[in-house]
Specification:
Elements (H helix, E strand, L loop, with lengths): L2 H24 L6 H9 L27
Keywords: Membrane, Transmembrane, Transmembrane helix
Protein name: Cbb3-type cytochrome oxidase assembly protein CcoS
InterPro entries: Cyt_oxidase_maturation_cbb3
Length: about 70
């Protein structure tokens, strides 16, 4: 390929990426990164009537007889 074609193409792709970043910044995509990071770590509560196998029925501090 001709270098006269590749250089403008790469500059255009860089400008398109920069425009997409500023669009996302303006539309609130990065408004709460800490909250999103915490939400992904918190397990979702089970639906009503379902038993979640990974969650203990009582926390360890409420049931001192429970052993690992």
């Amino acid at each position: 390929m001709n270098i006269g074609f590749l250089i403008p193409l790469s500059i255009g792709m860089g400008l398109a990426g920069l425009a997409a970043f500023f669009w996302a910044l303006r539309h609130g995509q990065f408004s709460d990164p800490e909250g999103d990071a915490c939400r992904i770590l918190i397990p979702q509560p089970p639906l009503q009537g379902e038993h979640h196998v990974r969650l203990a029925p009582k926390p360890d501090h409420e049931d001192p007889d429970r052993r690992l």
